[in-house]
Design goal:
The chain has about 600 residues and is α+β, with helices and mostly antiparallel strands. The chain contains 24 helices and 13 strands.
């Protein structure tokens, strides 16, 4: 039996069937704010942690301690009243001391008697506390009431903590202090509710709501209403979120224009699919706004969804235009190096004059090709790129009472978002191949010694993963197995993805007309445009979406420009349903209700007797 299996006081075994029943730890807090050791110390019994003694106590002993704590005040009262008078036991007659002989009468007459020790003579002297106030014309002495002597004494000694406690115990002073605190809080609330101060809850524009944070709200509360913030901070046990939420709701009950936090809650409720009745109920409690105001604010926030993507698009367009100008300047420089004189060109004067005229607006074209300014702190060769991901969103709304005007509805929308590439792609040159195809050696495409060594290292990593995953004997090595092969961009790929929600498109991608509108919308809004028409942007989706988009792109292949031919979109499929498709393939091949077909699941279950 272990040391902590028994009670420390009554030494009763508390472990029954390997489980502790009806026991409490001495030095850990439970439901009550004090530990058992602290409660024992309150009744003058000190219990310390000892390695050779148990750290548990049974519930019966805890009940005994509770009864002692309940009856201890009565015992203390008896002790204070009768503790000074100790009654001695009356001895038996035979045990008494012998009676002294009588004093002679002559000695009684000559004995001096001590003074009387009555109550009046032995009464203690009472002190009187006076406060002397000196004016230029006179001096006034005021006798302090005995109940207020402790307050005056603490103030004289500058013991502010004791003086405050004594004041709070005085009913009249406490009421006046309470009124002063209420007046102070009211002044802070008036300051917060003034638009001149610029409190952040007044700022409910889409840009301000996007930058809303509880840290800023806490900083404003500490700046404009420090006393109110300290009270709420104490009530919520120093919880930042709870303090800010309580302050925002309380202040909106005083000033409805402080609605930034209410719109923040509106977004949460709308995202969760709350009904109109929920908004109406919370609006009456000043927690949120009305449902109509929430919908209006969501419409204001909708255009700001793609702002980050548009900024990336602008940066990419700047880079594309600058690269185009650099390519043209390089070509002009090559021509100047090759043709150094008019004799080398062998051009007539008419052609020269025509070219000189065409070259005049070149500077103007140069300015037109660069409508945007390049940020000074952003390198041109490392601008971030992005891709668009889209998928269908289907709903089925069942009618409670169907009729010709009110029937079941199937809603098909399209949700799309932008995902920033961790590695920029625009700095990779694509104007010319790395090597001339006529000079290329086909032997370079075959895996050499270095490539075979590299493949061998990768196969070792893959083999170690499979051994640790499928063989239990190697599971102990799972902590040292390389799960991610290091490469040139390992650090970048380990970062969290940056995505930009672009909202819903109320179009059905299964309909040809709606899908054409979706693709033109993506190309027009998010594909960067260079000087030579639109650039390229990767668009991802499931396999059905990818197939439908390719069909639409092929159908518009006879357009006049790249934009009309949708050549700015490169479609790819995302393997969201790869696991499900794999299971469907396995089910189609291996699941047959026949035990005779070898290799099927039924045949394997028959051999293994697993049912």
């Amino acid at each position: 039996m272990a040391l902590n299996d028994v009670c420390r006081t009554c030494e009763v075994n508390m472990r029954v069937a390997g489980i502790f029943n009806h026991s409490v730890l001495l030095f850990e807090k439970g439901r009550k704010p004090q530990t058992i050791a602290e409660r024992l110390k309150n009744i003058d019994l000190t219990v310390c942690q000892d390695i050779g003694k148990s750290a548990r106590i049974c519930q019966r002993c805890v009940s005994t301690l509770t009864r002692l704590e309940r009856d201890l005040p009565v015992f203390r009262k008896w002790e204070s009243e009768y503790g000074g008078a100790t009654a001695e036991a009356i001895p038996q007659k035979r045990e008494r001391e012998p009676t002294p002989s009588k004093t002679p009468r002559v000695l009684k007459k000559g004995r001096t008697h001590p003074p009387s020790t009555g109550d009046k003579a032995s009464s203690s002297r009472k002190s009187i506390t006076e406060v002397i106030t000196k004016y230029p014309s006179k001096t006034v002495a005021t006798v302090i009431d005995p109940e207020d002597v402790a307050i005056v004494t603490a103030l004289k000694q500058k013991n502010w903590k004791t003086a405050t406690k004594k004041m709070l115990k005085n009913p009249e002073l406490f009421q006046n202090i309470k009124n002063g605190i209420i007046e102070l809080i009211n002044d802070e609330c008036v300051r917060v509710c003034s638009r001149k101060e610029g409190f952040m809850l007044f700022k409910s524009s889409p840009e301000d709501l996007q930058s809303f944070s509880f840290m800023k709200l806490e900083a404003d509360l500490q700046c404009f209403a420090p006393f109110l913030f300290s009270i709420l901070h104490c009530v919520t046990k120093n919880s930042q979120l709870t303090t800010c939420a309580a302050a925002a709701i309380a202040l909106r009950g005083r000033q409805p224009s402080l609605s930034a936090f209410a719109h923040y809650l509106n977004s949460i409720l709308l995202y969760g699919g709350a009904k109109k009745s929920v908004f109406n109920r919370f609006s009456k409690m000043s927690i949120t706004t009305s449902h109509q105001a929430a919908v209006v604010k969501q419409r204001e926030l909708a255009p700001t969804c793609g702002r980050g993507v548009r900024h990336l698009k602008q940066m990419n367009e700047v880079l594309l235009n600058v690269q185009t100008v650099e390519v043209e300047e390089a070509r002009d420089q090559e021509l100047c190096d090759v043709f150094r004189s008019m004799e080398d060109l062998c051009l007539s004067e008419e052609v020269v004059q025509t070219e000189s005229v065409e070259q005049r607006p070149a500077a103007d074209n140069y300015e037109v090709m660069m409508p945007l300014q390049v940020p000074s702190d952003a390198p041109l060769n490392a601008q971030p790129t992005y891709s668009i991901i889209m998928d269908n969103l289907d709903f089925f709304v069942a009618a409670h009472n169907q009729s010709t005007l009110h029937s079941n509805k199937t809603i098909h929308w399209t949700h799309h978002m932008a995902v920033q590439d961790r590695i920029p792609l625009l700095n990779i040159p694509n104007e010319k191949p790395t090597e001339d195809i006529l000079l290329y050696d086909l032997c370079a495409s075959l895996p050499g010694v270095d490539m075979q060594c590299y493949l061998r290292r990768e196969f070792i990593v893959l083999g170690s993963r499979m051994l640790c995953h499928h063989l239990s004997g190697f599971s102990s090595f799972s902590d040292v197995v390389v799960h991610h092969m290091p490469h040139e961009y390992s650090k970048e790929m380990a970062q969290q993805s940056t995505d930009f929600p672009l909202g819903l498109l109320f179009k059905d991608e299964t309909k040809t007309g709606d899908l054409v509108d979706i693709l033109y919308h993506i190309q027009d809004q998010y594909v960067p445009k260079g000087s030579d028409d639109v650039s390229e942007l990767i668009v991802g989706g499931d396999r059905l979406t990818e197939a439908n988009c390719r069909n639409i792109q092929w159908a518009f292949a006879d357009g006049d420009s790249k934009e009309k031919r949708m050549e700015g979109l490169i479609f790819k499929f995302e393997d969201w349903h790869a696991i499900r498709v794999l299971f469907e393939i396995h089910h189609k091949i291996f699941f047959k209700e026949s035990a005779k077909d070898h290799g099927t699941l039924f045949a394997n279950m028959t051999k293994l007797s697993v049912w």
